[in-house]
């Protein structure tokens, strides 16, 4: 049973779970608008500061595309199913080298067995709490592109090694390290490269490299790790839906650069996974009104969530 049904009635859940084609379209347009808007700001005001900000903002919106693909995997991005499937796969997933249909099967298993031995994501959180030095090394690898290059090379090698072997390809799609990655590499490379090419055609030849490839290899990897840590690191390895996942309160800077599209309300998402992301703040309020706030594992900020995972520890 969906955990939230034990605490919220059907009449309370129904309006929260209502999907919207209009809101889905707005979220997708907003995400891509921010991406190309950041490039446009640099084009009008070309300097080091606007360039760095563009890389950071675009990397955060690449995470935004991953989040919207995640929404579509739960059939929550659009009310119209064919729009949901198309947008999740081709407008959100493939441009960041991800494959929604493979991810959906993997991710629903995570929801079914959250923080148990059968959770395919357990390997991502089991290493925490970790030392400050260990987390720092991970962040440095992310921000210098080492993680991105390593994962991209692994993705390419997996595709080459498994080409033509459908059973082995399906098995690879259950690998936690490849959860957001596409094993059907050619289609994803075409979409990923098309975005870079479009940026270069709109500006200088190097725009695609600096404003699409570089954010993907650096800031996107960093915020993806921060998000993973905040959601399940240093939580209970149990079936308690209030303690095996964390909601992190985020200010506007964190929402802009680390936690787009209400991804910080992760406990609420696990409570009822088909509630659209834009409804999660309302669901958080509904749970508080039920007097459940004292049971919920929350962090007041992303810095606090990282501290629980070991950031700042000797």
Number of domains: 1
- DSSP, total strands: 2
Strand order of the largest sheet: 1-2
Helix content: 55-70%
Terminus-to-terminus distance:
41 Å
Average pLDDT metric: 91
Report the C-alpha radius of gyration, rounded.
19 Å
The main pleated sheet reads as: 2 strands, parallel
Low-pLDDT stretches: none
- Shape designation: globular
Secondary-structure element pattern, one letter each: HHHHHHHHHHHHEHHHEH
Report the portion of residues in β strands: under 5%
Derived structural class: mainly alpha
Total DSSP helices? 16
Organism: Ascidiaceihabitans donghaensis
Protein name: Fatty acid desaturase domain-containing protein
Keywords: Membrane, Transmembrane, Transmembrane helix
Pfam family, one: FA_desaturase
Account of the 3D structure:
GO terms for molecular function: oxidoreductase activity, acting on paired donors, with oxidation of a pair of donors resulting in the reduction of molecular oxygen to two molecules of water. Residues 49-290 form the Fatty acid desaturase domain. The chain crosses the membrane at residues 189-214. The protein has one domain. The chain has a two-stranded parallel sheet. α10 packs across α11. The radius of gyration is 19 Å and the shape is globular. It contains 16 helices and two strands. The chain is mostly helical.
């Amino acid at each position: 049973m969906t955990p939230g049904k034990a605490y919220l009635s059907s009449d309370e859940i129904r309006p929260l779970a209502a999907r919207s084609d209009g809101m889905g379209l707005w979220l997708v347009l907003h995400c891509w608008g921010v991406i190309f808007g950041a490039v446009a700001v640099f084009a009008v005001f070309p300097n080091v500061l606007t360039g760095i900000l563009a890389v950071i903002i675009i990397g955060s919106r690449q995470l935004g595309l991953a989040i919207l693909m995640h929404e579509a995997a739960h059939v929550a991005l659009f009310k119209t199913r064919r729009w949901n499937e198309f947008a999740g796969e081709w407008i959100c997933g493939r441009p960041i080298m991800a494959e929604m249909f493979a991810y959906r099967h993997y991710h629903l298993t995570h929801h079914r067995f959250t923080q148990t031995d059968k959770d395919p994501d357990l390997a991502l959180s089991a290493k925490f709490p970790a030392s400050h030095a260990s987390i720092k090394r991970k962040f440095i690898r992310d921000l210098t592109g080492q993680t991105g290059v390593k994962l991209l090379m692994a993705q390419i090698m997996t595709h080459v090694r498994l080409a033509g072997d459908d059973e082995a390809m399906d098995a690879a799609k259950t690998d936690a390290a490849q959860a957001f990655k596409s094993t059907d590499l050619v289609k994803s490379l075409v979409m990923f490269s098309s975005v870079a090419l479009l940026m270069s055609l709109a500006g200088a030849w190097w725009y695609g490299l600096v404003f699409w490839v570089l954010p993907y290899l650096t800031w996107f990897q960093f915020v993806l790790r921060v998000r993973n840590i905040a959601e399940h690191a240093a939580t209970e390895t149990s079936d308690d839906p209030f303690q095996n996942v964390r909601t992190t309160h985020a200010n506007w800077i964190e929402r802009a650069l680390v936690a787009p599209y209400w991804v910080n309300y992760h406990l609420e998402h696990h409570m009822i996974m088909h509630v659209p992301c834009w409804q999660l703040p309302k669901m958080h309020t509904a749970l508080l009104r039920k007097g459940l706030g004292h049971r919920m594992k929350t962090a007041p900020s992303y810095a606090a969530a990282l501290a629980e995972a070991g950031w700042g520890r000797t």
